[in-house]
Amino acid sequence: MTTANARSSATSFINSEAFAELRPVQPLPYGTIVILADLRARPGPDGNPLLDQQGRFIPEPGP
Q1: In whole angstroms, how far apart are CA 45 and each of 9, 32, 42, 48, 50?
Q2: Cα–Cα distance list, 49 to 10, 36, 53, 61 (Å)
Q3: DSSP, residue by residue, 5-63
Q4: What is the 8-class DSSP label of residue 4?
Q5: C-alpha dihedral, 18 to 22 to 28 to 31, nearest 10°
Q6: How far apart are CA 53 and CA 32, in angstroms?
Q7: Distance CA 62, CA 10 (A)
Q8: Model pTM greater than 0.85?
Q9: Cβ distance 17 to 23 under 8 Å?
């Protein structure tokens, strides 16, 4: 998910066992682990977020 106003990009990860058991309109399986990484977009020289070839924000480098 990329949000232009917030200038951030969110990426989610889920454990493979839970992913294999996902069903539409059903609760997440017991023991599901979900991680959400919220990253700021790297600004370009004009202050606007830099985009990759797919049009997604390029995140700022980590610490």
Answers
A1: 19, 41, 10, 8, 9
A2: 14, 20, 13, 13
A3: TTTEEEEEEE-HHHHHH--TTSPPPTT--EEEEEEEBPB-TTSSBPB-TTSPBPBPP--
A4: T
A5: -20
A6: 32
A7: 15
A8: no
A9: no
pLDDT at 8: 79
Which amino acid, residue 26? Answer: Q
Per-residue pLDDT, 63: 64
10-61 confidence digits (pLDDT tens): 888 999 999 999 999 999 999 999 999 888 889 899 988 899 999 888 888 7
Tokens of 56: 């997604």
User: In this structure, what token pair is assigned to residue 19?
Assistant: 């992913």
What whole-number distance in Å separates Cα of residue 50 and Cα of residue 57? 6
